[in-house]
């Protein structure tokens, strides 16, 4: 389904253990918007809803709304802190087109 790289794992564990965050799950999803039509959503949550799918990879518990699952099959979540920018990067093999910033895509 979705794989979490080691760089993303380390950053997510740090954020999950942060006193201000203090959450159990990483919520990943897709919503309408962005330059290419669809955009990625990443947040933290303590609640798993009925329509969420729970996926565990590389010690991270992801919850994904079932509507977003099909858009994210085969995606890897990475974290980059290089010269070109800092943040989480979704590498989605299903995306036909992405915008320049990599935050939105189309199928």
How would you summarize this macromolecular structure in one to three sentences?
The chain has 107 residues and is an alpha+beta fold. 18% of the residues lie in helices and 48% in strands.
How do the strands and helices of this protein lay out in sequence?
Layout lengths: L1 E3 L1 H12 L7 E8 L5 E8 L6 E6 L2 E6 H7 L2 E8 L2 E7 L5 E2 L5 E3 L1
Parallel strand pairs: 1-6, 2-5
Antiparallel strand pairs: 2-3, 3-9, 4-5, 6-7, 8-9
Structure explained in plain terms:
Helix content is 18%, strand content 48%. It is of the alpha+beta class. It is globular, with a radius of gyration of 13 Å. It starts with a strand and ends with a strand.
| Overall mean confidence score, pLDDT | 84
Considering DSSP H and I runs of 4 or more, what fraction of the residues is helical? 10-25%
Shape: globular
Poorly predicted regions are none
Tally of individual helices: 2
**Named CATH architecture:** Sandwich
Biggest beta sheet summary: 6 strands, mixed
In the CATH hierarchy, the third-tier topology is known as Hypothetical Protein Aq_1857, Chain: A
Order of helices and strands, N to C? EHEEEEHEEEE
- Could you name the CATH homologous superfamily? HesB-like domain
Strand content: over 45%
């Amino acid at each position: 389904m979705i794989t979490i790289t080691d760089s993303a794992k380390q950053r997510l564990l740090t954020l999950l253990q942060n006193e201000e965050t203090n959450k159990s799950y990483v919520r990943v999803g897709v919503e309408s918007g962005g330059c290419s039509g669809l955009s990625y959503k990443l947040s933290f949550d303590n609640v798993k809803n009925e329509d969420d799918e729970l996926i565990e990879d590389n010690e991270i518990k992801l919850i994904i709304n079932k509507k977003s699952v099909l858009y994210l099959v085969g995606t890897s979540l990475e974290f980059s802190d290089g010269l070109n920018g800092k943040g989480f990067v979704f590498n989605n093999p299903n995306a036909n087109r992405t915008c320049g910033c990599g935050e939105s895509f189309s199928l």
